[in-house]
Amino acid sequence: MPPQVLISRSASQKLFAEVRRWVEVGLAKGGSPLESLVYPLSALVPKQGLRTPVELLSAEEISEVVIDEVAVPPDDVKVFSAANCHFAGDLDRANAAFNADIDRMLGLRPRLGLNSKLHAHPFVDGAFLSPGDIHHGVNAPKAVNWRERRGLRTAILHVVYPDATPRRSKHAWQITKDGAKTTGGGPTIHWRIRSWASMPEYGGLVMRDLGDARVVSGSHPSVRAARRKPYWCSARGARWCDAQKSDLRNAGYPVSRNLLGRGWRRYLVQTAHTQLLIALPPDYPALAPRLLDVKRAWRNEFEEVPLPRDFEAGFSASLLDLVRRFGAPPQSAETATTAETNT
């Protein structure tokens, strides 16, 4: 089964407001609605098991894409027309401001990630992906790099489309379970969000139609799960994380700690013979960590290492005890080699 796409009512209101704005700008200026583009922020719900953001996740492994926020690019670099939307101008400055805005939103909801792209086809029969959409959003090297940096093997694309031609008139937009609708001054127009995900087939990538997204309330279980704070946001989780890093360093292990995205936290630990990545899921300690042997980080090459059977995840667990099973600190190994040479 391909993944199902859900969007919270609050995110849909923000998304459709942006679509509506450019529809009305185009109708007022030239008589044709303009396309528009936004970046949904979503939580990815796995079907079974867990994948860290450094492991590539395929569409077949995702049960739900839960959109709960929308990032709207700055207006001053938008070049939108009735048949195309792209950016031009001072892109470096705009990217810096836009990325800071995205980081702020992800800081408030760490389980979300920038996992997909969305644009509008504001015309009849617009529920399709054009050759340009597929090239720039799926097949181009930049598109592949974009999604792989986010731990995705699949390209997820969305298109907002209406079931009738938008007309210039005084009308109201209402959010429905299926999407949105415009009423007043003419026939009701229904707006929906169609989604696709790339899947391997016959040696290439095929875009699988995921159907229309469902608009759900903020009380929906999937939305509530997407908004739940990761363990490291709690006072107890933060204390545990700090203690683990301190214990590893005091024992001589070079260690760095950072966030992986989608609510995951990671410890990168150097032993005498290998480098380990301990990936802690957002629902730790209810879910055990994943342990990866770093082969070539710059090429995204990692090898899963089974956790010892007697390792029990929890706030009483010791990452130092776990790491010691895979080797001594680098300095200890150097000291031992020197001693052997001197005797």
What is the structure about, briefly put?
The protein is of the alpha+beta class and 343 residues long. It contains eight helices and 17 strands.
Distance between the termini: 64 Å
Reading the helices and strands in chain order gives EHEEEEHEHHEEEEEEHHEEEEEHH
Q: What general form does the structure show?
A: elongated
Mean pLDDT: 91
Poorly predicted segments: 333-343
Query: In angstroms, what is the radius of gyration?
Result: 24 Å
Largest sheet, described in full?
10 strands, mixed
Task: Tell me the structural class.
Answer: alpha+beta
Tally of DSSP helical segments: 8
Strand content: 25-35%
The number of E-state strands comes to: 17
Portion of residues within helices: 25-40%
SSE diagram, text form:
Blueprint: E1 4-8, H1 9-29, E2 37-46, E3 62-71, E4 78-80, E5 85-87, H2 91-108, E6 117-120, H3 131-139, H4 141-148, E7 156-162, E8 172-175, E9 179-183, E10 189-201, E11 204-212, E12 214-216, H5 221-227, H6 235-250, E13 255-261, E14 264-270, E15 275-280, E16 290-296, E17 301-305, H7 319-324, H8 330-342
Parallel strand pairs: 1-3, 1-12, 6-7
Antiparallel strand pairs: 2-3, 2-6, 4-5, 7-10, 8-9, 9-10, 10-11, 13-14, 14-15, 15-16, 16-17
Helix pairs in contact: 3-4
